[in-house]
Design goal:
Length: 330
């Protein structure tokens, strides 16, 4: 049973599509024309494209050459938003799935359900396509987030698909699905498939070497300071730039303590401050601007209330050092 209309591919200028200067008009990328397809992500006008990451994404989307793409990096660094916003501007439908430890390959294929095809008709057992089948059949980008949480034995079911071979769905009477020329697979993970030695990401598993051999692996990091400040000011109404500067400074200090790149070496915090948390903190701070200590009050709700007491105290001390008197009293 199919559930989506197959689109016809075209090409578009990279420079014009992504607002990039110094890119010749004859540099194009495959895409779809505007269609109103429900699986095309919405455009985030404030999204910042890292040029190197965008270059790698577009090179892959243009010609995967039998590969899939693995985006790896710390939480909240923009792995999913990078591919999502690329798809948004290319009008490319994207099926997104969040992996977990109990996920099975059949979850990607689909399942049977009682359905009535027409109003008033008696329901019958029908096969409902999963995200993998839909993406393969109609030329979508399949994105599997947190892929390193998945059982490697289950993930190996993707191997033949990534090789470009047809998918045979035994659960649907042996239905054979040939991969559409525009079908792509992008996965994200906090590790690069070799497991997590830091212990920061619970549930991360080492992936099968044969499966990993089918991926192009791309490292994704946090935004540059000036870009993150600009984003924070754009997304948080009324945000003063000088406050945004110090918020980003604090976030980077916390990230260094998480990754072990701060002075002293080893990781000293169990979680980082993502751009997502920064924006949440900023919005809450503006909402609580009438409170005695809006910076602290907002940060507790946005970030700190999930921290252990000693980590909460350490991060609060960082805030006090960076913001001075405006940090307020405990």
């Amino acid at each position: 049973m199919t559930s989506a209309k197959t689109l016809t591919a075209t090409t578009a200028s990279i420079g014009k599509t992504f607002g990039l200067d110094q890119v010749p008009d004859d540099r194009v990328v495959v895409c779809y024309p505007p269609s109103g397809h429900p699986l095309v992500p919405a455009v985030d006008k404030h999204h910042h494209f890292d040029r190197e990451l965008l270059c790698r994404l577009l090179n892959f989307l243009n010609d995967p050459a039998g590969d899939a793409m693995y985006l790896t990096g710390p939480t909240g660094s923009g792995k999913t938003s990078g591919i999502s916003q690329a798809c948004a501007r290319l009008n490319w439908p994207m099926s997104s799935v969040n992996a977990h430890g109990r996920m099975e390959f059949t979850d990607l294929l689909g399942h049977h359900a009682l359905l009535a095809l027409l109003p008033g008709e008696e329901p019958t057992m029908q096969f409902v396509e999963g995200p993998l089948v839909t993406a393969m059949r109609h030329g979508h980008v399949l994105v599997i987030n947190e892929i390193d949480l998945m059982d490697p034995a289950e993930l190996s079911g993707l191997n033949d698909v990534l090789e470009g071979r047809p998918l045979v769905i035994a659960e649907n009477g042996g239905d054979v699905v040939k991969p559409h020329p525009m079908f792509r697979v992008v996965v994200t993970g906090n590790s690069a498939g070799a497991g997590d030695d830091t212990g920061a990401y619970l549930g991360v598993r080492q992936q099968n070497i044969a499966a990993m051999d089918r991926y192009r692996v791309v490292q994704v990091g946090y935004l540059p300071n000036e870009v993150e400040v600009k984003l924070l000011v754009a997304k948080v109404s009324g945000m003063p730039k000088d406050v945004a500067d110090r918020m980003v400074e604090m976030a980077n200090h916390i990230r260094e303590l998480f990754t072990g790149t701060a002075e002293g070496g080893d990781s000293q915090l169990s979680f980082p401050m993502s751009t997502r948390v920064l924006v949440r903190w900023g919005r809450l701070m503006m909402a609580y601007s009438g409170s005695p200590s809006p910076l602290q009050f907002a940060l507790n709700e946005a970030f700190l209330n999930r921290a252990a007491p000693e980590e909460k105290a350490a991060i609060s001390e960082i805030g006090r050092q960076i913001f001075g008197a405006s940090w307020g009293k405990e």
